[in-house]
Design brief:
By secondary structure, the chain is α+β, with helices and mostly antiparallel strands. It has one domain: Alpha-Beta Complex (Inorganic Pyrophosphatase). A hairpin with a 4-residue loop joins strand 2 and strand 3.
Length: about 210
């Protein structure tokens, strides 16, 4: 269908920035699923892209940040650490907490890490340092397994913090709105405050 004739769906109209320094995340593949779903902008629907091997399933919800355009010309990929699996097409207001830097065939293909604003399990997570090493290891191991199966030239370049994640969001957002700028400021401020609390333990009360 020609681009000019295609009516935009609600997913296409969603801005990158949400409220309170958060972003919108559109879930494609829920946690625990072996089915890899992908949003098709031409159809305005979610289609089954492929099925993961028996030994692999998503250990997290996986989707994208609408209103963004990454190095591979697709929306920015998002690893959503949620309390329980959602469903394909679920829209979540989420807080960026880090990013897994990656390249595919020499092209930037980063995976943003985010947590839902309404999460109970990840309520106090504001930066990469708030996540346990086990969670990060699980994320990296999953992608290494899948990329090895897919073949091709893939490269994972490690994790970076919430401030870097916010910078990437601002860089790949299709519209540089004040709300996008606010995401960067709020995420950086929250991460800085959180890290400051960790470095400065409370004085004992008498």
């Amino acid at each position: 269908m020609p681009e000019k004739l295609r009516a935009k769906t609600p997913f296409d109209r969603l801005p990158a920035a949400s409220v309170r320094g958060a972003i919108h995340v559109v879930v494609e593949s829920p946690s625990g699923s072996r089915n890899k779903y992908k949003y098709d902008p031409k159809l305005g629907l979610f289609r089954l892209n492929r099925v993961l091997p028996y030994e692999a399933s998503f250990p997290f919800d996986y989707g994208f940040a609408p209103g963004t355009r990454s190095g591979d010309d697709d929306p920015l990929d998002v690893v959503l650490l949620s309390d329980a699996p959602t469903f394909p097409g679920c829209v979540v207001r989420a807080r960026p907490v880090g990013v897994l830097r990656a390249r595919k065939e020499g092209v930037v293909n980063d995976r943003l890490l985010a947590v839902p604003l309404v999460s109970r399990l990840y309520h106090d997570v504001h930066d990469l340092a708030d996540l346990s090493p086990g969670v990060l290891l699980s994320i990296e191991r999953f992608f290494r397994t899948i990329l090895n199966i897919e073949g091709g030239e893939h490269q994972l370049d490690g994790f970076q913090n919430a401030a870097k994640a916010a910078q990437i969001i601002a860089k790949v957002s299709e519209k540089k709105t004040p709300q996008v700028v606010k995401v960067v400021k709020v995420v950086k401020a929250a991460a800085k405050k959180k890290n400051g609390e960790k470095k400065s333990p409370k004085k004992p009360t008498r």
